Amino acid sequence: MSQYEAGLQHDQSSNAGLDMQIFCDFVASHCNRPLKPVDGTVLPDWAKPMTRIRYMDAESITDSEDAGFLPSDEEEAHLNDDDKLPTPEIASSLRNEILQAEGNLNALWHCVRAYMQATTTWWGATAAVLDEYERVAEMSLFTEAKEDKKCQNDDSNTHATRLVQALTQMLQTFQPEFEKKCDEAVLGPLGVLSHDILPEIKHTYWTRHTSLDHENEAVKNANVRRLEQERETLHVKLRTDVQNSMTAFVALQNEMLATMHDQLHGFERVQRMPRQRSQSQPVLTRRRSHQESRSPRSIGLSHAQMTSMQENDTEDASAVSVLQDESLELQVSALSAGVGDTEVTNNKANDADESMDFNKARESIGEEDGNETGDNEQQTAKDEIEVGKMAELEGEDAVNQPMEKPSSHMWVWGRPPSTEGGTAVVLRPKRVSLVNGQLIIQVACGGEHLLYLTSTGDVYSYGDNEDKKTAVTIAASCNSNDTESSRSIMNTSSFLSPHLVEELTLEKALHRTTIALITCGAQHSLAITDAGELYTWGSGEDGRLGHGDMRDRAVPRKVMSLLRESVVNASCGGAHTAVLTAKGTVYMFGRGRNGRLGLGDNKWRDTPHPIVRFPKGTCISHVVCGWNFTAALDRQGNIFTWGKTGEGQCGLGYVDKDQVVPRCVEKLREVAGGSSVVDVACGYTHTVVLVATGELYSWGLGEYGQLGTGDVYQPLPARVQLPQDALCSPDQLVRVYCGAFHSIATTEKHVMFAWGLNSYGACGLGHTANKDKPERIDCFSSETELIVACGHKYTIALEVHPDLYEHTSSASRATAQARAVLNGLNMQGRQLSDGSEASEDDFYLGRVLPGPPNSSPVVTSRQRRGSPPTSAIDLDGVPREAIHEKEEELRRAKKLWRTRILRNWEENKDTPLAHSLWRQGIPPSIRARVWPMAIGNKLKVTPEMFKIYRRRAAAYKKDRVAKEENGTVDGGREHTLALIDTDLPRTFPSLKLFDSSGPYYAFLLEVLETYACYRPDLGYIQGMSYLAAMLCLHMPQDRYLTFQCLANLMVNEHLFTFYLLDADLANVYYTLFDTFLNSRHPRLHDHLREIGVFSCSMYLMNWLQTLFLQVLPLELAARVFDNFLLDGTVFLFRTAMAIHELLGPQLMASEMDVALPLLQRNVVYQDEWNMRVSEQALFDTVATITVPSHIDSALDRVVNNIFFYEKRGDPESVGGMRMMAFASGGQSVGIGHVKHERRRMYTISDALNGVLGGF
């Protein structure tokens, strides 16, 4: 025990752990009465026998005032002391019982959890078996009939498909409900006992009490009664909860079996068509007297009865077979004709009559055998009629089905990464989908992380530090009783639950540049936009991110030194990165060991450096990284490699030193007969290439069979032989991919060959034996684009519909095609793959396109990987140099904001430097910090308040239907919650971020619903979604903060007035702007009046209500919002006036039918707006506009008058100038008063803007 007290039980050289185990065994077997230590060592308090419990210090699991007194106390008082157990005996007995209960309940709790996991595994195995059945049923050899036309109606593959669909639908509906019920009804009571009640009792009786005192007999008796009462109470509680759990378990098991029986009972037998019977075949006709009134299911015989009949009477076996055929025909006909679950339920009462008894069956056969000839032809005709009706119904269903939308299917096999240990191994390709339902068009596999690219250009990530934190949360939540939160956290532990890379989404929203290519290394990631800009993030060790330092980056950041170039391809190695530009230049950065950078030395580089040691005239079209080496493919089909050569991965033969500069693999030309290379992929220590003749070659280390040649070490290119007759003409190989230790090749018809490390099922062959020869996998559609991404222990394949690539701008595609024609190139292309880990997209001429540019989903010719090099293109007419300078200015502005302003916001926010930077536009990454401070929290919104109104919104939605049916009206506008779901898809629709499938849909819906309940006088008004969406885009990680900013923003300046939808109050602003327009541009003002635009409210309301978010691009509108937070509504007046001036020439020459739609930015005039109202032109014009002092003062009085809204009922105060004159100012409820003071203090800020603009 002394060793135990010294903490030596964890020391490997000490026997304290064994001694402690012996001691615990002794205590358990001797009723918790250990002997006195021989050496006089003091035992821990928890191990000492209890001798005394002070009643006033003890706690009970009940709060009864008569604690310590049982109904039998009076009787027990008359018992002899000899009849009672001594107090220490009772205490020890209770201790042992509690320990026993705790151990058993914990074991039961874990056993139930194992049961849940095993049930889920069983469901998954069942689905895998049915997937294989469906795959076999779809083979042409299985579906095509060769007898006659009637046999062509055989629809067995449809039967298999329906079976898989039925099981999938059942699992989708029942499995979540099963897990929920099991958590709540079965695990819940056990968890409360084992994790709450018993630990609390142990804490009470093991820690807080001293030894029992034998001096006072009365105290002893009271303690005995108390212990007995505690035991009795615990007994009742434990018995009740365990029985409830057991009852729930049995009921849940029965429900699961009954559901499976009801849903899948109709698929027990495969459909068989009626056949012509010979006269020698015995036929059993059905009795119509009592069976036609039932469901057709009642005619079938059970499989057990059929077996019994066949075993007991072989003479009647043929008759039984015919009976089975007929019953199956009628059963399937009934199912196809729409015999639903209702009929199945109604017929359960007749289950006893549905199956014939053996003797009755034989009697029926004997009785009706004589009538066989008369009924045979009639019955066959009826069977044909039933089958015909079934076919018609199925044909109608096929016609009535809506046209399928373009889809993307993801298949996975092997052991994908997971934050939980023991991830199940998938031995065959299994179709899965992301939890959020996004359509994936590209996947990149890193070491233990994944990147997904969606059809909308958004990037999702899994496996980074955020997911590791989630794993800790999961472990902590397993001991909690919040089962709902535990389940939601559990869902995030799967690679199918990635999180959005929000910074790239913000860039997409602001600059309209989408991600076109993603790739991963071991610990870093990169993405390339369709504008040719490179983002990197992850581990910065050895400079592999290319930012000029070795800092880790948790969020994507542009590589500044490559902004002058147009990046078209990139690849990640173990600790280095290779980048290919549109000019055909290869840039390298990261770890330089073994010469993997190809720069002539072993030094690391933290910024991109071009490789200049290629032979003269070489034009690189594709680059791929292995773990510690690199390969490049040029336009002539030559392969260049450099880096480590110790395992033969460079294919340069038996060399004893690393290759530090690119070197051509000349031996490949010899063994390939001069054929050029069209594709290359690199693994950890091996390389695989595909040549134009369709042959595969590999070299490197093949200890797991990844070379496909049967060799363990092959430093020179060797041909990979496919199995004989495994590839049928005209199909041919078109792409190769490599994981760390396995390889994959695909054909035009999307047949796959896999070989290499298969211990985790990464080859998808249905077993775990490594393969040193290619083996065929044929389970993918030939009508879609097949994209493969190989990880370390797993493989992911995508079947992408070509229409999903339509989000690529037509202008980019047209430009690419035009330039390709100038270069004499065939535009048919195919998806790229990062050779080692990632799958990427084709790119053309400096502009990376997020999809294959060919129109046909099936490519019929093999093509070389990569793109032709050209000069860097301009983006929307902006030279690359200008883009670089703009990014440099943005970086400098970020630094000034962080170092000069945000460090002490209260002191620096009103300085001229802050105002100058503010008016130039707050950097997007800084807005999440500046906007909440600029908006403020005058309303004192707290997180608790947000949670309260969030719960109210959820409760209102739940009870809304009942309230509408009862006609209950609560006086508020909470009913407008129903409009939010309809309005969200119309919020920035081109971004596809806020519709039902968008990543921010739930976020924005929650914020708006909460606000509608927080301000029931407003509810939800169209236009709010734009303001909330802009806040959401910049603050996507905190819903409370977004709600706080929205609530305070809505009462600032003019916004509350415009969302009240009160024409009289809003007319004040219209009158002021009309006066402003008339004073500055009287001719334009008069012209608009003459053509019929009598009031600016016809277009100005939309501008001011949404802060120009509906008419200006988001990047411009966000900068307008920045200035609105600084200057208030007056800046919106200046912006509106600037738009009038920019559109003025066209407005002056237009009539009503053109001018009003132009001002409203009708879709017909979007190009006109984009051309005339550019960012530079707009803000240059705003800088020249000054609001007259009388309009500025009147506007300030209206904004800051807290009694402005109370004059709505006063007829004398209604109308323009009268209301303005009456509004005499007052205390501001927002930031308007502060802005007014700022304008007075800094009247020359506009002039300073030009002087300090360099900052």
From TrEMBL:
Keyword Repeat: yes
Key words of the record: Guanine-nucleotide releasing factor, Repeat
UniProt repeat feature RCC, residue ranges: 408-456, 457-531, 532-583, 584-636, 637-693, 694-749, 750-801
PROSITE patterns attached to this UniProt entry: RCC1_2, RCC1_3, TBC_RABGAP
Region listing for Disordered, in residue ranges: 267-321, 850-875
Domain Rab-GAP TBC: 921-1128
Domain of life: Eukaryota
Name listed for the protein in its UniProt record: Rab-GAP TBC domain-containing protein
Organism (species): Peronospora effusa
